[in-house]
Amino acid sequence: MTIDETLLMAYADGELPPAQRAEVEALVARDPEAAAMLALFEASKLDYAGAFAAQAVPPVPESLTRNIEALVAAHREQGAPAAQAIEETNVRSLDAERQRRRGMPVWLAAACMAGAFGAGLVIRGGLPGSAVGPAPTTVAGGASTPTAPITVASNTFAPWVKAAMDYQQLYTRDSVAYMPDVDARHLTQFVDDAREKDKLDIDVPDLSKAGLELKSVARLRFRGKALVQLVYLPKDGPPISLCVLAEPKDDQAVTANRVDAMHVVTWRQAKLGYVLLGNTEGLDLESIGKQIAAKDYPKLSI
Prior knowledge:
The chain crosses the membrane at residues 106-127. The protein is of the alpha+beta class. The protein is built from eleven helices and eight strands. Among the domains are: 1-47, no CATH class; 159-294, 2-Layer Sandwich (Phosphorylase Kinase, domain 1), CATH 3.30.200. The chain is 37% helix and 18% strand. A hairpin with a 5-residue loop joins β4 (225-234) and β5. The longest helix is centred in the N-terminal third of the chain and has 18 residues, at 62-79. The protein starts with a helix and ends in a 9-residue tail after the last helix.
């Protein structure tokens, strides 16, 4: 069945009346995916005001605050969805989930905007790995010496990669750790559905020798295109995600970039686009990405 993330988010925020709370609790009791998603929303209720209370930030102009409040109000009015029946499916929209995330408090959005313009954080560039020249037909394995990731702006990436990056920010170590384990039946069904229904010829790599444990698999959609997501948890630190989407273009070598604290490794192989990403300092994601591309890791068997 379709899971209404907005309803789960409202439950986590304590905004539902008793009748709807009972419905959500019944859903969570019988649906592990809904339970995992609720745990994620519960874990994402961060004390933004407390975190920034001790920071020395310039005062936000009142005019800027008023303008942002007006924009938020207008956006909410335009985005209020009409109730409609939708076909039952186990595929969620990545674009929709990205749009449904909790709104940032107005004062914080204004402070971030003012700080970004004040620091001159405007960077231009093309799609990573899109330099002029013949595209490689093979992707190098993990033997080469990894290079330091290049820091780029998030709008440098293809839209689906940017959406995956935004979605990744929802995950914390605690929320992923609470997810139910992926069993053999679930994993087999996921791979079969990805291949037959989504037309994505994927394998789920066993990354245990890199210190990563598979915690979640999901079939998503981005602007009508199938996208699969594999979430791994390292021994320490935040989770790592591997996302795959059909890209009928030439192969592209593994490229490592960085956006703020997030490491983003992209490549294209056999008409599939890949992105491996996470906020991590303890793992060499570029090397792991190259080994995935070279199929140095075995298929996961549970």
